[in-house]
Amino acid sequence: MNSSQKFLDEIEGKNIDFLIGAGASSEYISTLSIGERGNEHSIEDLLTDYNSQENAQAFLKLLFFDSSVKRGLISTDNIPEEAKNTLESYKKLIENMLILSRHNGFERPKRTNVFTTNYDTFFEAAFDDIALDHPLAVFNDGSRGFFTREVSYENYYFNVTHSGSIDTFRREIPSVNLYKLHGSLSWSKRELKDKEIITSSLENKLLMEITKESDSCCNTLGLGRETKINSKEDIQNYLKLIDKNSNLKQNLQEFESMYSKLLIVSPTKRKFQETVLQKQYYQLLREFENELQKANTVLICFGFSFKDEHILELLKRSISNPSLQIFVIPYSESDIEYINSVLKGYTEVTFLKSPKGELGNFSVLNKFLEGVYDIEIR
Question: What CATH fold (topology level) applies to the domain 3-28+81-185+273-377?
Fold first, then answer.
């Protein structure tokens, strides 16, 4: 028996949760960082460093939107060619989740929870595609309704059973709950019956308007997909160009104003401009904390940097649950060192990688869930 099969035996029948970060979508959507790997500055680091400079804040958000946000509204009806491999990886992951949940006995819900910090809609697109082949499976993204789909943390507490056409039996069917901790590009704010609600739709007119404003600013600055920004000196050079162009300053301000209306948690120190998003954010974090405190819980992390301060704090507090097991597919050896350093003394983490030394690869995650080859457990 190989070690990945032992891993599957270890987690079978337990409460299985996934924490999925930006690395999962990085083949199609880049994550903005400046500098060399292992010593790079993240977008959150940069926004903190330039906290008091308005032009710098707007410029950095422009870079972030252009590289990491605007292409994230994915649907199966119009999937870009370069996004197909990533979508297939998500679909394979969900297939594996369904297989794992079907192995649960009658005493445990056949439910898998996915907590993600990603704004993109790869999971939703994958759900939509897979549902055609899995009629006896439920995919719940926290939205409810028909023409108006309201998103709420109250929409997760369901177990679904199938009874057949003449009610001769009842059996629980597998379900996957999707918790979008940092919001989504499919979310919009709407006034309905004297209250503000979040609705979900693949038609986000605000995103299209922001994209036009973003493209205009990028064209003026000479920024394109092939442009490389490797240091803070490069950023300073662009800021000098902005200082000399009053029209560009105004366009950047208009972009930033529109960008702030998106229902996503920007990579800053958690400053909210939308009250409705703030409420949703903290409720979903509470759900994540509750999951970490359940008996016999397994948390599988992929593509997550462990640099989100609130999520990291919840992981540290999970030390009170002696039965919690955390497994991580690391991106690099330096990630292993970093994760060990921030969680040292709080909770233990098991790292998994392929015998070929592959790290941070979506296929590694899916292969160890399938138990198909010998995985190195460290």
Answer: Rossmann fold (3.40.50)
